[in-house]
Amino acid sequence: MRHESIPWTQTQTQTRTQTQTQTRTQTQPQTQTVLDVARAPTTVDLVVPVYNEEDALQASVETLLAACADGANEVAIVIADNASTDSTPTIAEALARTHPQVHYVRLEEKGRGRALSRVWSASNADIVAYTDVDLATDIRALDPMVEVIRSGIADVAIASRLLPGLDISRGVKREIISRCYNRLLSASLGVSFSDAQCGFKAMSAEAAKVLLSVVEDTEWFFDTELLTRAEWAGLRIHEFGTDWVDDPDSSVDVVATAWADVKGIWRLRTSDRTSSRAPIHSSNAANPAVGRPFVVNDVPAPNTGAQILHFIDVGIISTLLYAVLFLFGVQVVSPTVANLGALLISTVINTALNRRHTFGIRSPHHGFAAQVKGMAAFALCLAFTSAGLALSAAFSGTWATIGTLAVLTAANLAATIVRFVLLRTWVFAVGTVRRFDSSAPHSTPRADADAAANTAPTESKRSHHV
To answer: For the chain, which residues score pLDDT lower than 50?
Structure first.
């Protein structure tokens, strides 16, 4: 048998080309429709990260091969070995020799995020994905996940164990930890996906390359950071609820992982977001029928009609909150102080709600700056309500408090239109997002660095090491 030392990407390309040629020769009819000719097949690299998985690896890979055999996509299974010390490398190499759809990559460092980043960065497939080796997630979700990405409906597709109506089998402890963790993500990072850590995800290769250039974590927090940066960048994330069976032999250290996650959340909250604010273009010249061109920038704000309706909703909530706070405050302090306190609290909450719901800003970054600008709206409302207080100073009798509240509420509502204009044009103003132009050259600092690195001479090529 002849052995050559060549890069994994080249091995993958040659094997996939040979497999595609054989498949087309055996299965394609003599006549093809226009759609068959126009649309190239969708290729998928499904990565299986492993560390000392000698007991489960072979059965899991064979299950994946059987599940993908009749699928509509051309799936290559990539075993990414995180420096295993048992017989995992031997089993993986045997599987790669036996099955042309299976590839083996060896890394000498541990870390699931590191393995995924290395393999996805080297991939030439249209779509990259990964699944945990325990196959706890229903593998049948792969085809629909690939389809929503191929069609351009989404850039990222993830499986979720936390959507309603699913058959989930796992202990109470893990269920509570998982739900609390994802609620913490929503509260601290402003994200909306339901399940960050489910071990089954897919994304377009272009989205992966853009996101991997800014993701720093190389271990378990990798998934969370990847999805968070994707949502902050305005990429479309589609969730699939899937049945799930817990692995009782899981070796994950819950306490250590939780602490690493907390540190990761803090890093994301305090990190500089300038790297994701500059537009980064995508292109898929190899297979333009797969996915959609996109520009990484701030999340697109809702359209004007939706903004007005959301603003009204937030305004109603803020007005009711203001009224309750004023009524309670006026019982213990003067009307002027009660008005000031109620207005200040309701304005802070109003700004936060409008930031997220009316103008669609999910990232926690620059929230303080928005509140500072929102104080201008506070000053405006204070001027209106102060005028209302002066107007109602002559009120007396049983209905004086109610009359004062009515005048102040009317003054507050009168400032609403001006406030909306200020929020839209100043406080939460965003720059125009440039549309994708396939003819325009584009690059990123990471891409430029990679290109420079690729031009440097290398001493050797490696087949099973990335």
So the answer is: 1-38, 273-286, 295, 297-299, 431-466
Q: What sign has the CA pseudo-torsion 287, 293, 296, 302?
A: negative
CB-based burial label for 376 (10 Å; 0-12, 13-18, 19+) = middle
Q: Provide the CATH number for the domain around residue 46.
A: 3.90.550.10
Structure confidence at residue 424 (pLDDT): 80
Q: Are residues 284 and 333 in the same domain?
A: no
* pTM for this prediction: 0.65
Structural domain boundaries enclosing 213: 39-296
Q: What is the pLDDT of residues 405-427, one digit of tens each?
A: 888 778 777 777 777 878 888 88
Residue 208 and residue 115 in one domain: yes
Looking at residue 189, its pLDDT comes to: 86
Residues 118 and 218 in one domain: yes
pLDDT recorded at residue 138: 86
195 & 65 share domain: yes
Residue 250 has a pLDDT of: 62
d(CA 223, CA 285): 27
Residue 456 within a domain: no
Positive/negative CA dihedral, 78, 82, 88, 93: positive
Instruction: Give the integer Cα–Cα distance in Å for 310 and 313.
Output: 5
**Is residue 374 included in any domain, yes or no?**
yes
List, in order, residues 6 or more apart from 120 with CB less than 8 Å away. 45, 47, 128, 205, 208, 209, 212
What positions carry a catalytic annotation?
A: 223
**Which tokens go with 270?**
């305090």
Q: How many structural domains comprise the chain?
A: 2
262 and 406 in a single domain? The answer is no
How many Å apart are CA 73 and CA 126, to the nearest integer? 10
CB neighbour list of residue 138: distance below 8 Å, 6 or more residues apart: 159, 242, 243, 244
Q: φ, ψ for residue 382 (rounded to 5)?
A: -60, -40
Classified as helix, coil or strand, 332 is coil
Q: Write down the pLDDT at residue 90.
A: 95
Neighbour order of strands in the sheet with 200-204:
102-107, 74-82, 43-50, 127-131, 200-204, 156-160, 237-241
Q: Are residues 351 and 310 both part of a single domain?
A: yes
